[in-house]
Amino acid sequence: MRVLAFARLRELLGGGEVHVAIADGSTVADLVRQLAGHRAEHTAALSASRVARNGRLAGLDEVLGEDDEIALLPPVGGG
Amino acid sequence: MAESAASSDVALAGRRALRRYSRHLLIPEVGLAGQERLLASRALVVGAGGLGSPVLQYLAAAGVGRIGIVDDDTVDETNLQRQTIFATADIGRAKVEVAGERVRAINPHVAVDPYRLRFDAGTARELVRAYDVVVDCTDRFATRYLVNDACVLESKPDVFGSIFRFDGQVSVFGWDGGPCYRCLFPTAPLPGTVPTCAEGGVLGVLAGIVGAFAANEAMKVLLGIGSVLSGRLLVVDALGGHVREIAFERDPQCALCGRAPTITGVVPEPDEPEIPAGDDAVAPERLDAMLRTATLLDVREPHERALGVIEGALCIPASQLEARLHELDSAKTYVVACRIGQVSRWAVQRLRDAGFRRVLHLHGGLLAYALTHDDFSFF
Fold first, then answer.
1. Does a structural domain hold residue B49?
2. C-alpha distance from A25 to closest chain B C-alpha (Å)
3. CATH numbers and ranges of domains, chain A
4. Distances (CA, A) of B348 to B31, B58, B233, B303, B362
5. Are residues B317 and B186 located together in one domain of the fold?
6. Which of B42, B145, B165, B350 is deepest in the core (most CB within 10 A)?
7. B8-12, B31-35, B233-237: which has the minimum mean pLDDT?
8. Is B265 inside a domain boundary?
């Protein structure tokens, strides 16, 4: 599935757009854990972020489909 | 005679004003009524930096009648790459002073209220109350939450813009029953976990793009026209050349604007939590053994629970702790856990203050636990 990463997550995930293969029935939380991959910095950044699915803020227990577009939104505070 | 001279002065000023705002007057959505509305309106711009620069310039040029500027800083050479309201000669001067001069130079009809102070819990609500719209152009999360909270509590719209490197976010919070910043990001990230522009950098022109979007939202709110960015987060990707939109709703669990709010006033930023003595901290590898007799109190906010929840844990978000103390039993032993082991220290202190004696905290949080336990059973 197509995953868009912004701000801090761009460099951590290796680009603004990454393609990720997910297992059937994966939830938003599963995807976040998969992307974090037990790496401390990734996990810290991802767990502070919100996830949007097809242009709408998603809950962690939502089940994903292969055609969904995911946007990972870290908090951005600069001004 | 005097009266006639005075009224002709007014008429002359009126004609000059008509000329100044003629391009607004030609737009049906603005027109004379809209321009008069702008001239009678008041905007508070919190932060005179990268975002504040375009916001102040456009609101001044548009004829917003009164503009408050809050900033406690002085102009630094590193500001000049993006803070276009300042010139090289302004280095070392107070930002509110220079910005005020610039606003008056752009449009002498605008009244300027310069506030050379930090927007803090002591001044937040009083400042916000005196204006019709607040534009959050600050560069610190703690201040952003304070602006949001003060705006919701005073029923004022909070126009939010933020930037980092090539990425920006824009939204309008607390507008016409719409969601607030806490519905999107319930709590501020811990200091040091999200890099600032000073640490990570920012493309100068992004401040202009996002600031112009924010100024546009402030104009729409003041004029009562168009479709305000309420319940919508604009995600600006200057590198890819995309602007995306994320829809979000008011969160019934929101600690500020939800059904049972626990934040009912603005509070000063918490001091750095006290580090308890070594005996109070449970190392992640000791947690499983501890939990044979103790209860895990998981104080993460719901949106932080991507790591999963440990079976048998009692989940009370830190933001609800004060209101839900009655759910705890002071005879029991609790190991308090948060995401990375900082909020839990604060929670332990709160519980001790409330009379709980047997409280410990998980060192490094559930993040450290998950990283040392490959078999961490998520469910």
1. yes
2. 14
3. 2-73 (3.10.20.30)
4. 58, 48, 35, 21, 10
5. no
6. B145
7. B8-12
8. no
A33 CB within 8 Å of a chain B CB: yes
Q: Is A79 within 8 Å of chain B by CB?
A: yes
The three-state DSSP-derived secondary structure of B168-235 is: EEEEEECCCCCCCHHHHCCCCCCCCCCCCHHHHCECHHHHHHHHHHHHHHHHHHHHCCCCCCECEEEE
DSSP-based three-state secondary structure for B162 = strand
What pLDDT does residue B76 have?
96
The residues near B292 (Cβ < 8 Å, ≥ 6 apart) are none
Confidence bin at B349 (pLDDT 50/70/90): confident
Q: Are residues B287 and B241 in the same domain?
A: no
- The model's pTM is 0.80
- State which residues form the domain around B324: 281-371
Same domain, B306 and B367: yes
First to last CA, chain A: 32
Say if B229 falls within a structural domain: yes
> Does residue B130 belong to any structural domain of this protein?
yes
Looking at the fold, whether B203 and B345 belong to one and the same domain comes out as no
Residues B52 and B187 in one domain: yes
**Catalytic (active site) residue B338:** yes
pLDDT of residue A38: 75
Catalytic residue among B151, B197, B254, B257: B197
B231 and B294 share one domain = no
B contacts of A79 (beta carbons < 8 Å): 47, 49-52, 136-139, 161-163, 197, 207
